[in-house]
Amino acid sequence: MHYLLLLSALAAGCLLAVQASVNLQLNKAVGTPYGASTVQLGVATTLLLAAAAATGALGALGGVPGVPWWFLLGGLASPLYITSGILLFPRLGALLTVGLFVTGQMFASLALDLLGLLGVHQRPLSTAILLGAAAVLAGITTIARAPHPTPPPPLTAPPTPARLTGPAAGPAGSLAPAGSAAPTGSAAPAGSAAPAGSAAPAGSVAPAGSAAPAGSVAPAGPGGSIGAAGSVAAVGTAGSAVPAVPAHAGAPAGSRVPAVSGRFGGFGGVGAVRAVPGSAGRVAPARVAVARSGWLLLGVVAGAVLPVQGAINARLRGELHEPLAVGLVSFAVATLTIAVVLSALVATGRTPRPHLGGLRTVPWWGWLGGACAAVYVIATFMLLPQIGAATTIALTVTGQQLASAFIDHTGAFRMARRPLTTARLSGVALLILGSLLVHLG
Fold it and tell me: Membrane spanning segments where (predicted)?
């Protein structure tokens, strides 16, 4: 029986990695990560409501008005964690994203334990804890610095062919006729321009502001900038249009620069990196480093809120005495919070209005995110008194790492495939070892 409980904790950790992966299908369907988080949390709340009603736990909700107000704030962590997973998984991959979550969880739980915060029993600093913390840092650093198995294409314009052929070729500085399209693989001469709005097929040179298909690059313009506005056509689905952001200084008045979509860009301009005028198509390394650092920090913060959520929910459980009622309150607060955030972002034009009609296209497994979240909450509440908090957290963290490594290596749930390398496997081993030392040492 004891081993079955241990396996249950391991499986609960795997569900967190699966949850973040399948939630990407909701994001694709509704067109905004905040809308996807709202749908996923709504599903989880509905499932917990049904479970609480079936077990007679709803009566415990009568004690909610008498608890301290901050006992109800544990649910605020869920929108941040879920939305961060939707944003980070396609940019960093499952393995690195979950590694960042685990790192945040480890150091936040250490702060709670060593300082005795939020009612957590204080524990002394030990050699095992220090070694575990060092192993976690070494593990996440190894994964983050490991070479990407499939690097994104460079953001540089291809060299102009020595000899141009085809009807689209013309002398330098000539203008293509309105509405004309260059044949596949052709390139307009340096300095030439096609009218705004014309479509160029894959591999061709498109003018600044035009809708360019996957892999196309705007032609070189004055001063070595990419296009007249210093823009770079975003890498996306062939023929897709990427929202434009203001052009750089020195660009013609009224011009727009599309966000550079890639490993750390896209999603409607969130975290987009812009080309630097006069850089001949290159994105400044410092800007790329800053963007990457921002995503890495988001992953650590999103992981750190989970132990805080657990500590607050533990205080709420002490008042309500029903795990399912506590989970229901937590997810109800989370759903309400993300719904308010979504409404504010839509009203201010910071995110598109969710397209609920797209939910019909979500595969059946794309709805598992809400179920994974609900099962994880129930499992952790049930397992904590049975096998202890330290063992539960250590095994759930191990499950997260194993599941994320599998998803990355196989490309499961339509994720980009990132084969495991020796460096990435070493990082996973260090993370797991560090987690076990911190929580079991």
Answer: 39-62, 69-89, 95-118, 125-144, 294-312, 324-344, 364-384, 423-440
DSSP 8-state class, residue 117:
G
Each residue's pLDDT tens digit, 138-184: 988 888 888 765 544 444 444 444 444 444 444 444 444 444 444 44
- Please choose, from the candidates 143, 145, 148, the residue with its C-alpha nearest in 3D space to the C-alpha of residue 430: 143
Check residue 272 and give left, alpha or beta (phi > 0: left; psi -120 to 50: alpha).
beta
In 3D space, the residue among 253, 177, 260, 183 whose CA is nearest the CA of residue 218 turns out to be 260
How many angstroms separate the CA atoms of 62 and 224, rounded? 68
256 has which bridge partners? Answer: 246
Task: Give CA–CA dist 202/146, Å, rounded.
Answer: 31
Query: HSE (CB half, 13 Å, CA atoms) of 93?
Result: 26
CA distance linking residue 281 with residue 292, whole number of Å: 19
Q: What is the tens place of the pLDDT at every residue in 58-85? A: 999 999 999 999 999 999 999 999 999 9
Cα–Cα dist 164/170, whole Å: 8
Domain ranges of the chain: 2-151+306-440
DSSP bridge partners of 244: 258
The DSSP secondary structure of 52-90, one letter per residue, reads: HHHHTGGGGGGGGGGS-GGGGGGGGHHHHHHHHHHHHHH
C-alpha dihedral sign at 303, 305, 311, 312: negative
**Digit-coded pLDDT (tens) for 331-373:** 999 999 999 999 999 999 999 999 989 899 999 999 999 989 8
**Cα–Cα distance measured from residue 70 to residue 68, given in angstroms and rounded to the nearest whole number:** 6
What secondary structure letter does DSSP report for 244?
E
Give me the phi and psi of 245, to 5 degrees please: -125, 160
pTM metric for this prediction: 0.65
The closest of 279, 286, 275, 278 to 246, measured between CA atoms, is 275
Angstrom distance (rounded) from CA 405 to CA 14:
10
Which DSSP string corresponds to 34-51? HHHHHHHHHHHHHHHHHH
